[in-house]
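re: ur question from the group chat, yeah i did fold both. here u go
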Amino acid sequence: MAQGVPIRVYQVTIGTESATFSNTPGQHNSSQMDAVIFENIRMEGRVSVDNSPTTTSSDDVEFRFYNLNKTTRQALMQENATLMLKAGYDTSWQRDSEGNIITEYDSLPIIFIGGIVHAYTRKDPGSNDVVTVVNCSSDQKIRNMTKVSVAYKPGTTKAAVVKDLVKRLGFPVSRMELSSLGDTAYSSGKSVFGQLDHALTRICKECGLQYSIHNGTISVLRSDDQPAKGSDTSVDAWLYTPAQIMELDAYFEQKSVKLAAKKTSSHRGKKTVKETPEDETVTTKNGVRTKTRHGIMMKSQLNGNVKMHDFVKLDGLNAVMPDGSDGDLKDGVYRAIRIDHTINWPDGEWSTGLKLVEVQ
């Protein structure tokens, strides 16, 4: 097939989980029979997802569609509506009988799939455009509505509890990295009740884990974002070189905790010192412990193939910036802990931002 200059393409599918998306979160093969599908309409969008456990959803998503017809606007307003956006680049020069480029939409990566939380239409100030604003989330409704009340018998392993709560939440599993728990168990049993996502957050925190939901699938992994033992991060990583990177910068975050007064103890055993990851530094002064975490913020052309917690290999940075940001911008394998897609058609920004932490 002949190849040409890449052009921006997108496709939006609107339907219901039961009819259009087979009622399966994370199953993205849509049936066109009960769906409204459109492309080549002016749009602006942002899709952000991170691993923060304090929010009521894992993502923050808003789309603005301009001058939609009545049928499409009504589809966006229907109860339990689901929206799927595919977007990327098409380099095909295959054309139909009228000379129009034939876009292979099925091969485009999924930027977002999830429920429509709120949608409304208004007149755009200063123009004759009618704008439909759509706010979405891949997990907000399920997380806010799902409750739990369960007791686990003595001796139940922590891994078994995490797996059971994830199963009850109902999302297909993208990755489940529980090797750090080993066979540790709740010797006296464990009771869990209340809102399920809050309970899962608490259990993960006490087990040194975290979870996040991206496009209707759930991942559970270590809270320090380090890979499971035996992972070949270099082989499994997305490769980025300077030619693919639009912006690159180092960042650091600080979190301070006031330490409690030490208790006297007759225990004379040797205290285990927890290893500090390479991307963190810990200092203690005047009874306050401060943890500083280092990482990289980068922006590239739109890439919907990179998912939350995927590994990213940066290669070639040392050659073009040997002393970048005091050595913080360096080649290596990193993990994505935040993704920000910006989608504007037909013009404007069309990019993916990644927040990365280095893995050991």
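okk and heres the other one u asked abt
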Amino acid sequence: MAARRKFIGVDWGLSGLMADATLQVPERPLKARSTIWPSELGYDFASRFLAMHGHPPTNPANERSRGKFFMGQMIEAIYGMLLKAAGLMREEQIRCEITLPGMLTVSGKCDFLAGGEGIDWDKAEHEVRQLLSYFAPVINTLPPTMAYAMTNAFQHYKRMFLVAPPNMYKIEIKSVGQTVMDLIDNLNKPRYHNWLQGGHYQLSEPKKIQGTYIYYICRDDARDREFIVQSDKELKQAYYNDVSTMTGYYNESIGKNYLKCIPPLAPEVHFVEGSYRFEKNVNVQYSKFLTMLYGYKNFEAYKDKWAKPISAYNRVFKRVVKGENITKANTEIIAEAKTVFPDWDNYVEQARKAGAFDKLEENEENDLHS
């Protein structure tokens, strides 16, 4: 009797699947363009300038940043399905374009257009039933919370809008980490560049929609916040300033060696009003031209330079604002901080007037009650 051959299997796991999936999505090809992308608004002009000229990045997206982008796409897809299951979806990936007189065109796509008058709820219900039927095998295996949301979204919103129709909104989904979500919660407003991006979508057709809202969800703990962007004077002025400045830098380089026309660099660190903290500048931190423009080999090198100084500046700044005893070591840190932040004394006054550190922090409250 012939001996049975031993089956030799292949080790496998889930860890490489998502990483491999992110690698299958090709990077946008390097191509010179005269169009500003809405997602660039509010970021540093030097990095944007080089990207518009199609200059090869010295710090392209790495595996971690591609993974974050991939997770963002997954979350966006989930909310797209929920809007469809609710019968509210109008359009996806809506092209929004604005050309102000004498300026470069700003053009890009918003995630969703949803709500508005004239929804045929009977037709919507039929489409929702088809959608749920199609995804039934998947929905039946979803966690209870997600399954409930998918199967009850339509009736929830249909009841909500029995008396009056829903407003029509453009929606931009942003998935963020815990640190960014904490900042958004503390400041109670969207991040500046997200505000300008949402503002572009709003300003492209302000009479058709009742607002554009930016929806944040935290990848770590599922906290969410949303902010409506309206076409007010503040937004219009900020949008004009950004686009006109970028237009000026770009037009100045036409017909010249653009590498000799790079705009001024962004500060590597800055003071954030409202949170009253010194922070690393995300414009620098995540620039695809970090090495070329700022001289850092990579993100880690930039982080290593500023992590300890920024921590020390914030610690001593808080002591100064609260009027606590200042040691000799604190005085040395203040002197160093003022070489980076000449307006240190003004920041102290701002924080004192705002009562920035009057409220006990959570860990201090816990200490008092332990």
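fwiw on the second one: The CA atoms of residues 321 and 349 lie 8 Å apart. The chain is about 50% helix and 15% strand. idk if thats what u expected
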